[in-house]
Amino acid sequence: MGPDADRDEVAEIPRATGGDGYEVSDPAGIQAVILRAIMAAGQNGLVAQE
What is the pLDDT of residues 5-40, one digit of tens each? Predict the structure, then answer.
């Protein structure tokens, strides 16, 4: 995390787990990224239903 993060290493995590990665340069944007990720998971049927 942070400006010195190795982007190739960070990108390997979602590749290895079948997930997605998001980059945020401004901490204020984290909530929007989390919402986008939740919405994408729901559209792909990845959100558990009760």
Answer: 888 888 888 888 887 788 888 889 999 989 988 888
Structure pTM? Answer: 0.55
Query: Is residue 6 classed as helix, strand or coil in its secondary structure?
Result: coil
Closest CA to 46 of 20, 10, 21, 22: 20
Compute the distance between CA of residue 9 and CA of residue 42 in angstroms, rounded to an integer: 27
Contact predicate 6/17, CB 8 Å? no
Amino acid at 44: N
Residue type, 40: A
